[in-house]
Amino acid sequence: LGPLRAPPAAPAAPAAPEAEDERVSLAELSLMNKLIHTSLVESQQHVEILQRDPNSPLFSIKTFEELPLKKELLQGVYMMGFNRPSKIQEQALPLMLAYPPQNLIAQSQSGTGKTAAFVLAMLSRADASKKYPQCLCLAPTYELALQIGQVVRTIGKFCTDIKVNYAVRGNRGESSPEQIIIGTPGTTLDWCFKQRILDLTKISLFVLDEADIMIDMQGLSCQSIRIHRALPKSCQVLLFSATYKEPVRAFAERIIPDPIVIKLREEELTLSNIRQYFMVCQSMDEQYRALCNLYSSFIIGQVMIFCQTRRLADWLAGKMSQDGHQVAILTAELTVVQRASVIQRFREGKEKVLIATNVCARGIDVQQVTTVVNFGLPVDLDGEPDYETYLHRIGRAGRFGHRGIAFNTSHTFWQRLFPWSRSNDQLEQLSCG
Ligand code: ADP
Fold it and tell me: Where does residue 126 fall: left (phi above 0), alpha (psi -120 to 50 degrees), or beta otherwise?
């Protein structure tokens, strides 16, 4: 891309609340996934396509050369090291680049190539000779918007005349000649209707990324609908989401009636390849000793140790380090970028043991995790057993069909937390000693 406006600096983050239970928002999780997915996430699932007229022809492609991409874009694709389209791209790209333009909804889990697909569409549709915004992309947060801009910059490296601007907080708005605008719904609305510096009547491609997060964050879906209403009728609309449950479907269909929907189902969480053990300990000290005994056998692969609270995670990390064990720690106290860097070091094998709160109980793929330890069992905010978090935690071991082991150590509420421990033959008891 040509000289770009520098992305605006982030305003100071609000102070983190002193929450004991560390949950992350979907937006943070998505950003973390984007930062750590440096290559495609392979999927065993088939792509499903739903469309109003099942007889209308659909094309799928096996190579990028089959697409009507200008040579600068193909150069960008090669430079990224993309040899062939991902599963979702095989089906979605021909539709996204077709004439007449088609509206599309695409759903697939993080890391399957959605961003790269719509970035190619934006760079392909943008006409560099026209000095006004033609493609508008909305993302739920400032950080996610900047992340998309980064992908535009890299894939569009050879499209030197196409420029990008960001409609995000902190960016001083002025009438902009850039062909691609990436923004959050609130600031974009502001630019369009208050400051009147963004003319929506000439937008020919509208991309709504992370629709499920837009719905999760109050107000964003309504703001997106307001922006959509001001677009020309002929504008192509592409909507992306990692999930496609009822609220997303309803939102998507308000924006795109009778859409073509391309879906790649999420890999299912299977526990059959994970052996689960539990250790009933009498005290926290005994729980710690049990963990140290286990630690000496963690030689193969990598281990994640989950704690319910940041305080417990800090205490455990301190105690293990004092006792000469090398451990890394991941809590919500770190910024998303710091967390992604810890996860990256862990993924690269530079760290073998990662102590974490629920910040990465789900959604984070580290294929080499063979062992998960629950240092205390997960409970919800009411102190009740949190089975879902338990499943997501232990699901970190044994991703992609690999064999995994889960150890559970607890000294409190054992029977209440594990009512099924006696009847579940997948769970075996070990002694704490
Ligand atoms: P999503 O938007 O679904 O989370 P991304 O487009 O960010 O997925 O892609 C995830 C990772 O895979 C990124 O590092 C991206 O550069 C890479 N990637 C995307 N498409 C391809 C492809 N066709 N071949 C190889 N890598 C790809």
Answer: beta
- Beta partners for residue 354, in sequence order: 304, 328
The complex's ipTM?
0.99
Tokens 């050369």 belong to: 65
Give me the percent of the chain exceeding a pLDDT of 70.
84
Kindly give the number of the ligand 1 atom that is closest to the alpha carbon of 117: 6
Ligand 1 centre from 164 Cα, in Å? Answer: 20
Cα–Cα distance for residue pair 311/314, rounded to 1 Å? 5
Q: Whose CA is nearest to atom 9 of ligand 1?
A: 113
Q: DSSP secondary structure string, 352-379?
A: SEEEE-GGGSSS---TTEEEEEEES--B
pTM of the shown model: 0.78
C-alpha 198/C-alpha 81 separation (Å) is 35
User: pLDDT digit string (tens) for 337-347?
Assistant: 888 888 888 88
SS3 398: coil
Q: How far apart are CA 333 and CA 88, in angstroms?
A: 35
200 DSSP assignment: G
